[in-house]
Design brief:
Structural class: alpha+beta
Order of helices and strands: HEHEHEEHHEE
Low-confidence stretches: none
Helix content: 25-40%
Shape: globular
Strand order of the largest sheet: 1-2
Distance between the termini: 42 Å
Strand content: 15-25%
Largest sheet: 2 strands, parallel
Mean pLDDT: 93
Length: about 130
């Protein structure tokens, strides 16, 4: 699990000497080796550079036989990784469904309170 997350070389280092991104990848590996069928992750790409964000996304997608639920504020990353989305509105309402039908400019605006558009395959906020 450490090697799959580019963290194999970190095994011999004191956790207090690791960067935030390194700690995050070690924690993800630790979660995976526990073997739980359900993984609840809060911002799994926090502190990760773009290359490691992509690597973590691929790794999560390859965790067969498990249900992975994560929260993420990076819409572009979530759109590239998630199969389903749960949109939480500030007034207690929620909506859920497949990513392709859930990630729309209208829904993102309703949830985040700002305008969105899909540009070059990525979701971006617009003025």
């Amino acid at each position: 699990a450490l090697s799959a997350l580019d963290a194999g070389a970190l095994a011999q280092r004191d956790v207090l000497q690791l960067s935030g991104g390194e700690r995050q990848r070690v924690a993800l590996a630790q979660c995976a080796v526990q073997g739980a069928p359900l993984m609840l992750l809060d911002e799994p790409i926090a502190f990760q550079d773009p290359g490691h964000q992509r690597q973590v996304g691929r790794w999560l997608a390859e965790l067969h036989g498990r249900c992975v639920v994560f929260s993420a504020h990076d819409i572009h990353w979530a759109a590239s990784v998630a199969t389903h989305v749960l949109a939480l509105h500030g007034d207690g309402r929620w909506e859920a469904g497949p990513s392709a039908s859930m990630l729309t400019a209208e829904r993102l605006e309703a949830v985040y309170g700002c305008r969105w558009e899909r540009t070059g395959g990525a979701w971006v906020t617009v003025d």
